[in-house]
Amino acid sequence: MAADDSPRRVSGLTGRVTRGPFGGDSKSRHTAVWIDTGSGRHLLRRKGGPAMGDVALNAYVGHDVRCDGVLLEHTLLAENIDIIG
């Protein structure tokens, strides 16, 4: 990872949660849960949750949320997720 892509702590990051394809054209392509912040789209994961197939994230799909956690290269590892709309 380049210096610009180093993990960084975020607090109060807001966005809309959606479900869509992840993995490009690779064999590992699957449907994943995303948070779209308006300035970026990040794969959404819960800290301590499974890397794939986390059914707990289904509750957030279609909602606007506020998250605290760690932003990695293309993933938000959320420690806290609150529905705000």
Share in β-strands: over 45%
Q: What's the helical proportion of residues?
A: under 10%
Largest sheet: 5 strands, mixed, barrel
Number of domains: 1
Strand order of the largest sheet: 1-2-3-5-4
N-C termini distance: 34 Å
Number of strands: 5
Structural class: mainly beta
Number of helices: 0
Which stretches are poorly predicted, pLDDT < 50 over at least 5 residues? none
Helix-strand pattern, N to C?
EEEEE
Which key features would you list for this structure?
85 residues, mainly beta, five-stranded mixed β-barrel
Write a short abstract of this structure.
This protein is mainly beta and 85 residues long. It has strands spanning 8-22, 30-36, 41-46, 64-71, 75-83. The protein has one domain.
Walkthrough of the structure:
With 85 residues, the chain is mainly β. The chain has a 5-stranded mixed beta barrel. The radius of gyration is 12 Å and the shape is globular. The chain has one domain (7-73). The chain has strands at residues 8-22, 30-36, 41-46, 64-71, 75-83.
Topology:
Blueprint: E1 8-22, E2 30-36, E3 41-46, E4 64-71, E5 75-83
Parallel strand pairs: 3-5
Antiparallel strand pairs: 1-2, 1-4, 2-3, 4-5
